[in-house]
Write a structure and sequence with these properties.
It is built from 37 helices and six strands. It is mainly alpha-helical.
């Protein structure tokens, strides 16, 4: 009998959720609501306060702090005077950031040099050094780094500084001393350091750096031509092929195209074919036919052909490649990239009811560790349990998953599915132990499902938060130069520049409550999105700050006598959609605090008997929340109170929900389990969205009532609003 081990917090554990991967997402969404990382708010309007919620269960909606968070004005008046800076510096700061907004950096830096408080100059210089394509030189970077080692994103500045190294103007001794036996951050830095070692006669250190740096160095067309000529004594054909291969795997189209001329003819044919495959250009078949037979089985070419076929819906021809390819990580080169294709094709096979082959494609991933390995093991276990009815096989995969993740979301996920697997094996003791393990993470979707499973009649509540900071901690934090600069940015209405500073402050002294203090500061300047991001990052390492992680704003209970959904549902959607950023705009066109598509907003406004204004979608959060609330209310009516269906439809559109019910089964008709239905959602973004909103509904319900609650099982109950 395998029981869960005590898992200490370990920063080395694979953090699956942190991996940023691109997934296939819906393209056109006439009624879709897309989550997208918002663009940050700059202005706040005073007229945009939302009317206060009346009462629920005869209790005002509050959260466990001295005062509830209410939505700050969207366009606030610029402060008359500064809390920390002189009248002249305050006036100067307004001018400086007006110039920065216009990308007039020379003017901004010159103005900043006149500031009496030098922290203003340091802030402007830091922002300038982070700006792409700036005119700063190597010494600008190094001087700033040496004088301000505790500034945010210092490693990013070090990376950028390496691309400013010019061995013509900087001595070899200076370059060698700069790195001080430490590895450069970039491939370009390795090339520069390697040249310096060679100039000093140290071939043992210089040549390996040159060869290694050449593979992934970020080079302009001019740099490529110059360095290839200068270093040709140390770079051979194999080095050029390695660089071309790395560029192809990383989908660096133009960089790869510039490399073709330096490759042998047969490899020119190979990488030209890969270029055409990755760019969706015409002439793919002709280009592949020109690849020499000895390179036809190149793993990169096979991968690009697989990807090309999969994108065109050619499942059978995609399987021809996957079933014949060597199951060897060395041969595959990038098994993590292959997994992305395997996952999509496996899901397609599940939709086609071809479960055995789906399992084979998923489980033959050839990886041994990493976030993709964990995901592949979970999916293999899920197919084995839910579709092949093989709980013994499933437990093996779920154990592999559980032992290779570290975030609460993933730990609860692995433990929950182990509980279900042992339940299927009638091993009640092991099943209960694993459900109990999952239920330790009560702010997570699977943790809540496990809690319902083993404690159906027990009240839900969250543990006490981390201890609030004392007066000494508050004083030290308030006196920090960066804290004062955040306040200044708020006073001049430029909080969009405060994100990196706040995140840096949060991690500066965790033992002295820096996360809470930085989160509180973010809330105080109206940036709930930054506060949530700070609290989320802390939660990954099992430090929970629920007050700043789950802001509460006012939402309408009725619109034109139509009752709106419960406040906890609306708040949960807002948190997932925009993190309470009223001016958020997604790449797909979703707008405002509830990320409503303009087309949807126009239709909903008409049905709700509200005037339509595209401008107000991002300028008036009250208006946006009304439309979003009305739309989700309509969806709840359409789906007979089903939260999973309504939430999925809000994100991906009602037509897709209808399609998924058709191909995967309808849980309302008991054709499939709700948990499996959600996991079968085609788009990873929407799967994650539904789970995150559902988990947040219960958390918000508890936060609003400020007392233990009966946790709601939205797969059994039909919550009516």
């Amino acid at each position: 009998m395998l029981l869960p081990k005590i898992k200490p917090i370990n920063s080395d554990l694979i953090k699956l959720e942190a991996k940023k991967t691109k997934y296939l997402l819906p393209k056109k969404k006439p009624e879709d609501q897309i989550i997208e990382k918002p663009k940050f708010v700059e202005k706040r309007k005073e007229s945009e306060k939302v009317k206060i919620i009346a009462k629920i269960e005869d209790k005002e909606l509050i959260i466990p702090r001295k005062k509830p968070i209410t939505y700050q004005e969207q366009k606030r008046k610029v402060a008359i005077k500064s809390k920390y800076f002189s009248k002249n510096d305050f006036k100067l700061a307004k001018k400086i950031f007006s110039e920065i907004d216009k990308k007039r950096w020379t003017r901004a830096i010159n103005l900043a040099s006149d500031a009496k408080n030098r922290s203003i100059y340091r802030l402007v210089k830091w922002l300038y050094l982070l700006e792409s394509n700036n005119q700063a030189n190597f010494y600008d970077y190094i001087n700033f780094i040496n004088l301000n080692p505790n500034y945010p994103r210092i490693n990013r500045l070090r990376y950028l500084s390496e691309h400013k190294i010019n061995t013509k103007t900087i001595s070899d001794n200076r370059v060698i001393k700069l790195f001080d036996e430490k590895d450069p951050f970039s491939g370009y830095g390795k090339l520069m350091l390697g040249q310096s070692y060679l100039s000093k006669g140290n071939r043992e250190k210089g040549i390996p750096l040159i060869k290694n740096g050449w593979i992934n160095a970020k080079l302009s067309k001019r740099d490529l031509k110059y360095l290839r000529k200068k270093l040709k004594k140390y770079l051979n054909t194999e080095d050029h092929i390695k660089r071309a291969d790395w560029l192809a795997w990383e989908n660096k189209y133009w960089d790869l195209k510039r490399m073709l001329r330096y490759l042998p003819k047969d490899y020119q044919a190979l990488y030209n074919a890969r270029l055409l495959l990755m760019s969706k250009s015409y002439g793919v078949d002709n280009a592949i036919s020109k690849v020499p037979s000895k390179l036809k089985k190149d793993p990169g070419l096979l991968y690009d052909r697989l990807k090309w076929r999969r994108k065109r819906g050619r499942v059978d021809s995609s399987l021809e490649i996957l079933l014949k390819i060597k199951n060897d990580p060395k041969f595959l080169v990038r098994p993590d990239k292959w997994w992305f294709e395997r996952e999509i094709i496996s899901r397609t096979l599940i939709y086609k009811k071809k479960y055995a082959i789906a399992y084979k494609i998923a489980s033959n991933h050839s990886m041994k560790n990493g976030p993709e390995y964990a995901e592949a093991e979970w999916m293999s276990g899920w197919i084995a349990l839910s579709f092949l009815d093989d709980p013994i096989l499933a437990t093996q995969h779920f154990h592999n998953f559980f032992e290779n993740v570290g975030y609460p979301i993933s730990l609860s996920r692995g433990a929950y599915w182990l509980g279900r697997s042992y339940e299927k094996l009638n091993d009640i003791e092991s099943s209960e132990k694993w459900f109990e393990e999952a239920s330790k993470y009560l702010t997570t979707y699977y943790g809540q499902l496990a809690f319902i499973k083993i404690y159906p009649n027990k009240d839900f509540y969250l543990n006490k938060e981390m201890m609030r900071p004392g007066d000494i901690e508050k004083k030290v934090f308030a006196e920090n130069e960066l804290t004062k600069l955040v306040v200044l940015l708020h006073e001049i209405n430029k909080t969009k520049y405060a994100k990196d500073i706040l995140k840096h402050l949060a991690t500066s002294n965790i033992n002295q409550s820096s996360e809470i203090l930085a989160g509180d500061l973010a809330v105080s300047i109206g940036r709930y999105d930054f506060a949530i991001q700070i609290a989320k990052q802390a939660s990954y390492e099992k430090r929970f700050h629920n007050t700043i992680n789950f802001p509460i704003i006012d939402v309408p209970l009725k619109i034109n006598n139509k009752r709106m959904p419960s406040p906890e549902l609306i708040l949960a959607i807002i948190r997932q959609e925009s993190e309470f950023d009223a001016r958020a705009n997604s790449y797909a066109g979703a707008k405002g605090i509830m990320q409503i598509m303009t087309y949807t907003a126009r239709l909903v406004a008409k049905r709700a008997r509200l005037s339509y204004s595209k401008k107000k979608l991002t300028s008036d959060p009250n208006y946006n929340i009304k439309l979003g609330s009305y739309y989700i209310a309509e969806l709840l009516e359409q789906y007979e109170g089903s939260y999973p269906f309504s939430i999925a439809a809000y994100n991906a559109g009602p037509k897709r929900v209808a399609y998924w019910n058709k191909i995967n089964g309808n849980p309302q008709k008991r054709e499939i389990d709700y948990v499996d239905w959600i996991e079968l959602i085609k788009f990873r973004e929407t799967r994650n969205y539904v789970q995150r909103v559902l988990e947040n509904v219960n958390v918000y319900k508890y936060m609003l009532r400020k007392k233990p609650i009966k946790i709601r099982n939205y797969f059994v109950d039909k919550p009516h609003y």
